[in-house]
Amino acid sequence: MTSEVVRIAIVAGEASGDLLASHLIQTLKAKLPGAVFYGIGGPKMAGQGFDVWYPSEKLAVLGYAEALKHYFEISSIRSKLKRRLLADPPDIFIGVDAPDFNLALEKCMKQHGIPSVHYVSPSIWAWRGQRIHKIGAAVSRVLALFPFEPVLYEKQGIPVSYVGHPLADMLPLEDGRKSARELLGLSSQRPVFALLPGSRQSELNNLAEIFIRTACEIHRKMPNALFLVPLATRETRLLFETALYRCDAREVPISLLFGHAHEAMMASDIVLVASGTATLEAALLKRPMVIAYKMAPFSYRLMRRMGYLPYIGLPNILAGGFVVPEFIQDDATPENLAQALLNLYADKGICARIGEVFREIHLQLRQNNAEKAATAILDCLPVAVRNHASAAAD
């Protein structure tokens, strides 16, 4: 007998997955009145009524070396979650990103007759392309955020839907620098650099000091420059403040913000950003940027051998070329980063051309993401469940 309530299990592994899933839940709730959502998630999902069995931060580890340190805890969470879901099966399982955690769960669900959707295509176009066969065995459908991804799945006969990116729907097409500076009380004439060293504690451990020393280098050459540093959590703020103390950067005008990453980027002239979702946010806000990244040496050596593309930043991947500079691992020095930032600041023509490329990317990704994703997920529900839900909605 079909349950009167549609039950949707979701696993979102970090801050970006929490954001994606929260928009999806909001849209699905309108289409499936009374549906319940549970699993692994973050505060934004909880704000939509999601029942958090485990917090998403438990899965937010970076690279192979770091994952090994947390292997037993993460493996235990997955085993407990699997047992709980199989004991009382949901109507559908949605894995949001976190493929190394989710694909095994999705395969198990699919084998037990539970539709499984993977939301956010793993980056098979960048490295570990052989994973596509594992994905095909695990999922009922892939929801792809980027326009070049569906063809890869279609060639392998794997159901896929292009749904665009929610950030492209959320963020404005037009330049918001003036209003952002007014909001933050900043002069329209002062040089402003936004520094985004990452949202994970492991990223702060690798990049905070480098970003601070980069600011020190710029301050020596441009004493009136201001540096905005949005930090998402108390833990990352503490890590950054500790790095500030080590660097003895008291003379440098570095302003720490609790959150407000979009406002900081909009108010800035140039952004220095750790590779990840924040690079896409900077691109959608039409900000010239320099991308930096460092990870454990062992993780980096493995990833470098398996990579296919000459760049790692999402803006460059989407543009199909080096639109903005990247400095990875040993090349991510304060001297290199400071010079690249100053070069961009000095060349208004290049900055304008970068803005034009980013506007085209924005238009490509603006697809009414949550609506398309929700529609694709409804199509994956068992027919009896879908019909019952439709009747309840009417």
From TrEMBL:
GO terms for biological process: lipid A biosynthetic process. Pathway: Bacterial outer membrane biogenesis; LPS lipid A biosynthesis. It catalyses: a lipid X + a UDP-2-N,3-O-bis[(3R)-3-hydroxyacyl]-alpha-D-glucosamine = a lipid A disaccharide + UDP + H(+). InterPro entries: Glyco_trans_19. The keyword Electron transport does not apply. Condensation of UDP-2,3-diacylglucosamine and 2,3-diacylglucosamine-1-phosphate to form lipid A disaccharide, a precursor of lipid A, a phosphorylated glycolipid that anchors the lipopolysaccharide to the outer membrane of the cell. This is Lipid-A-disaccharide synthase. It comes from Candidatus Propionivibrio aalborgensis.
